[in-house]
Amino acid sequence: MSAPFEERSGVVPCGTPWGRWYQTLEEVFIEVRVPPGTRAKDVRCSLQSRHISLAVCGQELLQGKLFDSTVTDEGTWTLEDRQLIRIVLMKTNRDAGNCWTSLLENEYAADPWVQDQMQRKLTLERFQRENPGFDFSGAEISGNYSKGGPDFSSLEK
């Protein structure tokens, strides 16, 4: 079985002071660098539908209202190698037109070039899902791809 589309096509990360975040059609990934040797008991993480907070050793690293809603019960966080916290949020709205322009409502926005690349990637991911027999991981998009790209659903097969 081949790797999932996002693994073959790479990610389009948005850098932040504490790490980075990126997205697929279904999920938002947050990677937070923490001091080496951090233990799980040092981490306080709250994941709600529209709100996130993360504190390590009593110091708040990330807190605020998310750009869009997520499925609360499906959000997870892990501490990897005692130096990286990875948070995975499941988007409520999972279509290609739902490209988050920032992680929080007013913070950690993707610059215009990164936003453009994110939207292109989500559009390609949508094409891959709609056409499972084709590999779009190396494809290039030109033209109208905003809001999830063109809608081909009305075309006859």
UniProtKB/TrEMBL annotation:
GO terms for molecular function: unfolded protein binding. Keywords: Acetylation, Centromere, Chromosome, Cytoplasm, Cytoskeleton, Kinetochore, Phosphoprotein. GO terms for biological process: protein folding. It holds the Pfam family CS. It comes from the Eukaryota. Residues 138-157 are annotated as: Disordered. GO terms for cellular component: centrosome; cytoplasm; kinetochore; spindle pole. The keyword Acetylation applies. May regulate the LIS1/dynein pathway by stabilizing LIS1 with Hsp90 chaperone. Interacts with LIS1. This is NudC domain-containing protein 2. It comes from Sinosuthora webbiana.
